[in-house]
Structure formats: C-alpha cells, structure tokens
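Complex record, two chains
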Amino acid sequence: VPDLATTADVPNAAHSRRRAVAYWVSTLILGIEGIVGGVLAFIRWAAYGDILRHLGYPAYLMTILGVWYALAGLALLAPRLPRLKEWAYAGLFFNYTGAAASHLVVGDGAGALVAPFTFTALVVASWALRPPARRLVGPRL
Amino acid sequence: VTNTVAHADLGSTASFVSPAATSRSRLVGYWTLTVIVAWEMVAGSMWDLLRIEYVRVVLSHLGYPPYLLFILGVWKLPCALVMLLPRFERLKEWAYAGALFNYSGAFASHVLVGDGPSAWVAPLLFAILTLASWALRPPERRLRAANPAIETRLSAWIVPMVVVAVMLVAALLTLPKVPPTF
C-alpha cells in the first residue's frame, strides 16, 4: 500500500523549508539593519544625519530612533518574545512607511523610495512568515 | 444558620479581595483609561489633520517638519478605533505600540530640546495611561485569549464607532484657539 500521507508531505516539506528560509533572510536583514542602524543613529552618524536634515527632522530624533531601532532588531532576532515581536514589527512598519511618506512629501524621486519600500516589504514578509513559536495564538489581525 | 451563611456570602462578595469586585474595578479602570487615551488620539488626529496653529507651533518648536502632522494624524484615528472596537487583538498590540511610540517620542523630544516639566508631563502621563490600559485589557481583548468567546453583538461594534464619531465632533468644537507657550 503506497503511503499517501508521506507522498503528500514532500511538497509541503519543500514549501515549509522555503518559507523558513524566506523568514530568516528577511528577519536577519531587518535585525541587523535595526541593530547596526540603531547604533549608527544613536552615535549620530553623519550620513544618517544628512538624510534626516534633508527630510526636515531634528538631529535629536536620531537618539530616539536609535534606541527603538536597536531594541526592535534585538527583539526580532531573539527567540520567543512573541508579543514584543509584534511591537517591534509595528515600530519598524511605522518607521519605514513614515520614511517613505516623508521622502514623497519633500518631493524626492523614485530612487529615494526604493529603500523604505523594500524594508517595508521585508517587515511584512518577516511578520507574515514568522513560525508558530515566534507568534502569539489568535486571529491574524 | 441560613442567615449566617447568607450574611457570610454577602460579606465575601463585598470583601476587598473578592475576584468579582476586583475584575469589576479592573474593567472600570480599563475602560476609563482606554476612553481617555482614545479621546486624546481622536482629538490629536483632528488637530494634526486640520493643522491647527496649536500643533504647528508645537512641531516647529520641537524642530519637526509640518508634514509630520499628516503622517501622525492619519495613524491616530485608526489607533483610537482599534483600541475601542471588540476583537482585533493583534491590531490592538499595534495600536498600543504606536500610541506608546507617539507619547514617549513627544516626551523625549520635549526633554531633548530642553523644555521644562510643564511641556513634557502631559505626554509622559499619556504614555503611562497607554501602558496601564494595555496591562488592564480584559482576556477577550488580548491575544492567547483564555476565553475564546467571539463578540457578535451589533451594539458592541456600533458603540465604539459612535463614540469615535462623537469624539471627532467634540474635538472640532474644542480646538485650542491660541498656541502654547514654552
């Protein structure tokens, strides 16, 4: 008797492997960007300051963003902490969509929008693909 | 004997540590704080989207660009609505996260530009109210719900929407006429 269940599991296994790879790639990029970017912002890295000045934000915003950024990166990379991860995803989503909106409002071209849109997509992808151990039980929204 | 038992029951119901009384006062506390925060969010949304002088002066004092009012105003209204509506337990986490970032960001900004307590005590207070509302939210409004009962009563959905609508009107009627002084 052919083991139908095992046969049917093969594409599922490949699918869940691809899903795990996509989750970890997007999450590692976000986590590292958060921690490195957060530290660079906190120490008021000049290149980051130039972007904020161009968008019209005060330099001290780098201190506020830097702290939250690094915490978000740590929360995404750490095991478990599913509720904290929701907050980290929320913060990163507000941050990147806010950056995209700011670039749009000051009249920057498409080139300036690539990074915030890409990172917004990475946030959504990482959030949607997070494995059961890293998410709270409950409705999707 | 019957009287004694009945009396003892009444006493335990009214006692300070009664779970029923605790959960009732907890619920009253939750709704009081949540309505206060939601009200601030709805009024703030109005002030921001209408770009009234008050918030323009605050933003320019803190050094933020005026267009930030548009970004903040657009997020604040769904934040209030999600806090008041039933269910949407995961979106509620996002709404609380956004509210905390908003209030703590305002507090930090006032501190970093060197303002005194009169400028930063209000955002600090609202950050604390936000966390308290979050901590007190009842089981059916938080993820990993112990009670999976789903809210299907129409009134539970209509009332929050009406409350937000009333808050919007009230916000319009109570717009500050003069900018703040620092």
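Note: The mean pLDDT of chain B is 88.
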